[in-house]
Amino acid sequence: MLFKHLDINIFYKKYGNKKNTILILPGWGNTSPTFTNIIDNLKDYFTIYIIDYPNFGNSPTPAKSLTIYDYAEIIKEFIKEKNIEPIIIAHSFGGRITSILEGKYKVKIKKNILIDVAGIKRKSIKQYIRTIIYKILMKISSKKQKEKIRNKFSSNDYKELNNTMKQTFKNIIKKDLTKYYKKINIDTLIIWGEKDNDTPLKDAKKLNRIIKNSGLIIFKKTNHYSYLEKPYETNLIIKEFIKKDMD
Q: Which structural domain range is residue 201 located in?
């Protein structure tokens, strides 16, 4: 099914047909198959919606680059059209959207489940030095050399995108969303991989400190996709957290 807003079409799937609702906001580039285990575990108790972001899954590529606020605006309007007050399950990039929905737009959400979410901007000494080297090389290099430098310093996620989505990616990752996370005041479960290299564990501990009414579960020896590495434990913890909302 398609939902259209801001001249952008997003594809979504719906599972179940219960009174209470779950909205799944995946990570960057992830689609519904990565959440099959969670969906199968909950679809008998909830109506579940899961989104494909523009350019991924079954959603077409947008004609222009987007900001994180564009993504949040689309999801805000989706929630409004469906007339729901969902429980949000967000992974990685999905946390960025969640922080703005609640911290900026004040969208009514019942509960949050934040899994290895992004949006806490930080720079290690290593990253700082790498940025300086990149800027120096870009200043002194020829046009042909600059393309090679960009490829060397860019992440795999970035390299795989077309030009429109590359600009979108740059728009998104530069935003520090800490101020919005601080304004979340509903019950929030934070699930994190101990060995997460993309969004390190210190981000989880910071979120646990700044989000009122939050609790943190750390899965030992797991990485950025902790919910896939520990599917059984994830399902048990989520069910316990939202058991009062089950139909």
A: 2-121+175-245
